[in-house]
Amino acid sequence: MEMNETPTLAFTQVSKSFDGQSALKSLSLSLYPGMVVGLLGQNGAGKSTLMRCALGIMEPTSGEVNVLGSSVKELSAKLKMQIGYVPQQPFGYEGFSVAKALDLHRSFYPEWDMALETEWLQRFDLDAKQQVQRLSVGQRQSLALIMAMSYRPKLLILDEPVASLDPIARRKFMADLFDLAIESGSCVLFSSHITSDLERVASHLALIKKGELVMFKEIDELREQVKLLCLEDKAQLPDDLNVLNRQGNKVLVDNYRQSFDGLVAAEPLNLEQLFMELHT
Ligand SMILES: Nc1ncnc2c1ncn2[C@@H]1O[C@H](COP(=O)(O)OP(=O)(O)OP(=O)(O)O)[C@@H](O)[C@H]1O
Q1: Are strands 227-231 and 250-254 parallel, antiparallel or unpaired?
Q2: Can you give the three-state secondary structure of 205-246, one letter per residue?
Q3: Facing residues of 208 across strands?
Q4: Of 65, 75, 81, 187, which one's alpha carbon is 20 to 30 angstroms from that of 268?
Q5: 163 exposed, middle or buried (CB, 10 Å; 0-12, 13-18, 19+)?
């Protein structure tokens, strides 16, 4: 991915308040083609709000959102067709069979990839003859995913896409999501509370806490640079360390590069441990 190309999605100092309560706080973030970005944060941290602002469904209180080089407020119909979205609770197409629902949905997208649709129907084991209203929650989510992905959007936004999928479907989906992004040069932004999935498939992690983006970095860098430091009482932290949380002599930091005077230990953390340490 080339950082000098146009970002697929760019947030510039985006804030959003509801009745004076801040849900996003001056958030800046740029995503590029080929990135698979996992969005992690506690319930109510602002993940869905961020996604809705990215889609233009919700207007920020201040700041700029750009999608594929255009302000999200002025997206052309052509650019809108390059975006795929699966909300937390997909709905619609009651009264249709899966096949009919797909026929209708497909008709809106000239770029639809029929082979991809067929492959994903098989992958999720969906029966095209089944009525949509008789599908289980997970099957509905699978259908919504097929609908959002089969036209190979340049930006794919998925709000907890695998929450209702069983572990086998989830694993398959996550692995294929990554392949699809690489293959189609798409950019994927997805939220999930399943940290092992994020760790396995995301190229980048965006960590959001109470509406603030506390970290955005490559997963590989995260493994190297985010540490839980144990310090001697009088230790001085180097200035270039970014302190994420502190509990006495235990300090959670980003940007860790090397040992310094007074450092007792620098423990690596997996994503779940990082999440726990950040919120204690
Ligand atoms: N339409 C709305 N009206 C009022 N408040 C809202 C609205 N949408 C979100 N909020 C508030 O904004 C904050 C962020 O909510 P958001 O849904 O973005 O969180 P989230 O990180 O997606 O949470 P979860 O993991 O539970 O889905 C919460 O305090 C929520 O109550």
Answers
A1: antiparallel
A2: EEEEECCEEEEEEEHHHHHHHCEEEEECCCCCCCCCCEEEEE
A3: 213
A4: 187
A5: middle
Tell me the backbone φ, ψ of residue 63, rounded to 5 degrees.
100, 175
Q: How far is the CA of 58 from the centre of ligand 1 (A)?
A: 12
Ligand 1 mean position, distance from CA 239 (Å): 34
Is residue 44 in contact with ligand 1, taking CB distance under 6 Å?
A: yes
Give CA–CA dist 143/50, Å, rounded.
24
Does ipTM top 0.90?
Answer: yes
Q: How far is the CA of 261 from the centre of ligand 1 (A)?
A: 43
Tokens at 9, concatenated:
């999605």
- Going along the chain from its start, the domains and CATH numbers come out as 9-219 (3.40.50.300), 226-278 (no CATH)
Handedness of CA 250, 211, 254, 177 (dihedral sign): positive
- As given in the structure block, the two tokens for residue 5 are 């190309």
* CA of 279 relative to ligand 1 center, distance in Å: 18
Using the structure block, give the residue that is written with the tokens 């009745």: 19
- Looking at ligand 1, which atom is closest to the CA of residue 208? 21
Give the nearest ligand 1 atom to 58 CA: 1
